[in-house]
Amino acid sequence: MQKLITTLALAAFLVVGLSASSESRDIWKGGSVYSHYGLGTPYDFRATYADGMGVYGVAMHDNRISSVANPASWSRAVFTNVSGVFEMKSHDATFGTEQVQSTQFQTGPFQMVMPIYRDRMGVSLSITPKTSSRYTTLNDYVLPASQNHSGSDLNYSIENQGSGGINKIEAGIGIRFTRHLSVGYAPSLFLGSINRTQTVSFEDADYRSSNLKESTSHYGFGNRFGLYYSRRDAFRQNDRAAFGLMVSLPVNFVSERSLETRVDFMDVDVRPASEYGDGDATYPLEASAGFSYNINPALQLSTDLLYQNWDNYSNFNGESDPNLQDRFRAGLGGQYIAPRRDGATMFSNFVYRLGVSYDTGNLKLNDSSIETFSIHAGIGIPSSRTNSSIDINAEYGFRGTDSDGLVSERVFGLKVSFNLSELMFIQRRLQ
Amino acid sequence: MQTFDGISNRLTLSLALLLTIWIFSGCDDTPVVGGDLSPDDASVKADTVLLDDTSIISTPSFSGNRQYVTTGSVDDPAIGQLFATAMLRPSIDREEGADSIGPGAAASIALSPDYFYGMEAEPASYHIVEIERRWRSSSWRYDSIPELGHSVVAEFTLTDSDSIVVPLDQQWADKYREIFMTESDAVRDSLYEAEMHGLAIVPADDNGKMFSFEPSQAELLFETADGEGGISQEFRRWAVSLEKDLTFSNDADGSRLVFNTMRHMLELDIEFTEEFLGTNNFSRVELVMYKDTVSMQQDVPSTFLRPGSETMRVYQLEDEQLDFAITADPTFQSNIRSEDNSFRFNLTNLVNERLHLNSDSRKLYGVIGANDGRVFPHIISGKNDPGRSPKLLITSFSKDQ
Fold it and tell me: Strand A408-422 relative to strand A80-95: parallel, antiparallel, unpaired?
């Protein structure tokens, strides 16, 4: 049975690993129109256990499951952890009287954490989506007869399709300096491209459909620092309190933009990158602070706050975006880790998670912040013979508003995480 | 303990099912909502590029064995004087032991005139004379001048398009019969090649009317008084010789005179560059040229007939291809739009390909009517008439500035 789990998990990791770096593939239609702005919609998943509780996870650590939330937490690594995530997200969008539903399937972070000195020093290697831009909109236009050559009104529509996103490849180290205090540092490479394809089609068959694909590629180097403080018996016996802090410095992107069109199944430059310009967008500073408290070994509560300085974001042209604002995201949740007992029922061995989150969003459109309120829930299904597990998390959120000419979205997300956790490089003496 | 292992079979199955549903549900959705929130920064624009730099080029054009031959002389008030000679060479072939021409047989040519050019009701006279020098239809150009005999083999007058039979001089008929009746094919062919070069139909002075006919439908007939020994021969070679004395001037800014014979073609100097075209992402590019009906009717009496074509052809030719333009197929064809007498060509694919995919340097040349041995002059409006000068109507999709 264990072989089956391992095979399944490895296959899953392979798929996740191969596809994580190709987040920007223009395969899936749909998504949120709000991902049109800036670098796309920020992507928040950092750890499967945190996701099920609605928190970022900066003040949490689990020996069996890896997390990219806080570099300092890697110092507590005991097992080698590898994890990957599949995600399905459904948007039920309302715009005036229009209502449409879309579903996306994508991959989340892929991460490996390995202890150098068990519970003292650990390293991490990960690929993490940072933003995602996926949307499709359609606008209809009329070019009056007096302004075109057809002799009558020329009806046409433009399909506006966004794809791509920013990914982060990060390697980092966490070191526990004292019994309670750990710090971490993770340099990273941000890279990705934001693509926007506008395709015009005409009612009049004499006119040829054509498109313009603007691709803006970015790369830049980031630096992230973490601090993690954990204390057992903090307030009473058998409890544990932890505090976490993470700061990711702004990243200056080297950006390049091209404009292409498609002629006879070939992409040709409308504006070559050399002419269309080099730019220098900035990915904003990000910080998170949180607190978690284990009332007992089975029950844990956590809360944290994420801040992203999108107000200081600068786009390709070095200009700020008036539609962006600083983003705050607060989460509160808990998890119940049932103690393993032989003879227990199937459900009594799961990990149960529940939480809520509130997100101001990084967008302010028509004087309205695009806020999101979500409830989160998840279960962890552990393996009986190893520390590996499969986690299934769900969230249901409300984003935006249908007033002020905006789109109200109901977002349903379902994530499946595969977590391999093994004592690697240690020969077992006892079978 | 019932944990992962205990439920793995059911879970694996469920997960596989779930993933399959996700994948397919993700592929199928094509939602479009909230377009106002992702405003387009590209739009459709319509522009016009006037083709000021047009000119008429002359090319060597061959007239041999086209569908028609044309003969006659016409003084077109709008264009000038045209003088056409139709050249015909009947076959000398003879089926062994079957065909024969009886002694004293009379010869005549039967033909069906069509496409009259000139004064409608005026009778026009034509002479048929012998061609004195060897010629080849395959290399005969419109501007080649045949060497003609002075003695008239036949003459006829034409008023309308009824079929006519023109009797030929008996001396010519006897000469033809003598060669025809030679038993040896080789001797017959060589005698015919050396001594008879065919017949030319020429206008008698300035006869004021041209007409065309199909040589493949015409016949050389031999008939005897007793009805024995008569035959009909087809024509194997034919060509047209066309002389012009034009009064129409292709001024720099004015209209352009083109002939379907391709001796005079309109050269369109279109630069397939973004600078010239103003953009580089095209939804439609239409080349428009107008027939200059005003110039074509100037000083032309109402009883004057001028044949014409409703079809314009545009060729893509290299400079060195101009000498062989006659063999090229047109790239575009357009029938006239009756509302405004315009010819319109969809160049969208051509422009996209030229601009983005290749470095084809061929120029575009336009003529009205097919090069089929008939003579159709047309005048195309020039840039002195801005509303009707040749132009490109461009509809593009481009980023807003």
Answer: antiparallel
End-to-end Cα, chain A, rounded Å: 16
Task: Assess contact for A73 and A174: CB atoms under 8 A.
Answer: yes
CB within 8 Å: A382 and B282: no
Q: Tens of pLDDT along A320-334?
A: 889 999 999 999 999
**Is residue A331 situated within a structural domain?**
yes
pLDDT for residue B38: 67
Domain count of the fold of chain A:
1
CB nearest to A207's CB, from B22, B23, B284: B284
What residues have CB less than 8 Å from B220, skipping those under 6 apart?
B90, B107, B108, B109, B232, B233, B234, B235
- Token match 């066309």: residue? B242
- A105: nearest CB among B15, B22, B48: B22
What is the domain-level CATH number for residue A94? 2.40.160
Kindly tell me if the per-residue pLDDT of A14 is higher than 50. Answer: no
The answer to whether residue A429 is domain-embedded is no
**Cα separation, A232 vs B272, whole angstroms:** 77
Q: For residue A427, tell me if it sits in a domain.
A: no
Sequential DSSP letters for A333-344? EEEEEPPP-TT-
Q: Which DSSP state fits B291? A: B
What value of ipTM does the predicted structure carry?
A: 0.75
Chain B from 262 to 281: CB within 8 A of any A CB: 280-281
Tell me if A428 is assigned to some domain.
Answer: no
Q: At what angle do helices B4-28 and A2-20 cross, to 10 degrees?
A: 30
Coil, strand or helix: which one is B322?
helix
Nearest to B42 among A28, A86, A198 (CB): A198
Q: Which chain B residue lies closest to A276 (C-alpha atoms)?
A: B399
* Phi/psi of residue A148, nearest 5 degrees: -140, 175
Question: How many angstroms away from the CA of B8 is the closest CA of chain A?
Answer: 8
Boundaries of domain holding A140? 2-422
**A·B CB contacts under 8 A:** 198
CA dist list (Å): B108 to A132, B111, B153, B160, B288: 89, 10, 10, 19, 48
Residue-level pLDDT at B52: 83
